[in-house]
Amino acid sequence: MEENSCPQQLSEKVEEDKNNFNEKETNSGPEETSSQVSNPEGADKPAEETRVQYNRLKLFDKVMQKSLKKFVEIASDKGFAAMFRPLYKKNPQKMETIHKKFAEELQKTIQEDISRLTEEGMLEFKLDELDKLEDAAKNDLNPAWRPSGIPEQDFCSFLMPYYQKQEAFLRLELKKIQAENAALAQRVQTGRENISQTEQRISTAVDEWKAAVAEFENLASSLCPADVFNV
């Protein structure tokens, strides 16, 4: 009976804290409303969004702080003294100092673990998303999705949009790759044409140079015949 009652008591405690938190938010309306109206940065934000924002995060922090306080209270001075009774009899002041330091370190360590859990689990973002989903569900009059009773059909209806998005994404990537390949092929073709034109110009220049050399040799032989120099 005790094991079954613990989760129920915990859920009742969380629900009670949530109700108290919502009542506190509602009762503190006039002052917060006036401060929000006077704030120029929040003037363009809807009042409903400002009210709902970080609601669950504040509730989570409040529950964690209460749990931490109760947990630290369990490690009270009496329990510490009962566990280390011989040492308390010898030097009670020293043991009280040790217990105080122990309680401070315990609370600090647990608080760091809670902060690390909040940061690594991205609870701020996720709880904010839950607030937005809850707020959107209140204004949505359409019936919520329910399984049809045919697992294959439900599974396909869930996966088909994902596969269609993946197919569209792959088609788009394929078009990009094909366009890049076409551009590279055009650049290669242009380079080949430039090389061919360069080779043609080099060949023409060599032919012209050979023709000029032959013409020069003919001119030189006509001006200075070989028999003139024979003795």
UniProtKB/TrEMBL annotation:
Compartments reported by the entry: Chromosome, Centromere, Kinetochore; Nucleus
InterPro entries xref list: PMF1/Nnf1
UniProt entry tagged with the keyword Signal: no
Coiled-coil parts of chain: 167-194
Disordered, as annotated region: 1-49
Nucleus listed as a keyword: yes
Residue stretches of biased makeup (Polar residues): 1-11, 27-39
One Gene Ontology biological process: cell division
UniProtKB keywords: Cell cycle, Cell division, Centromere, Chromosome, Coiled coil, Kinetochore, Mitosis, Nucleus
Entry-linked PANTHER family: POLYAMINE-MODULATED FACTOR 1
Entry protein name: Polyamine-modulated factor 1
Record organism: Oryzias melastigma (Marine medaka)
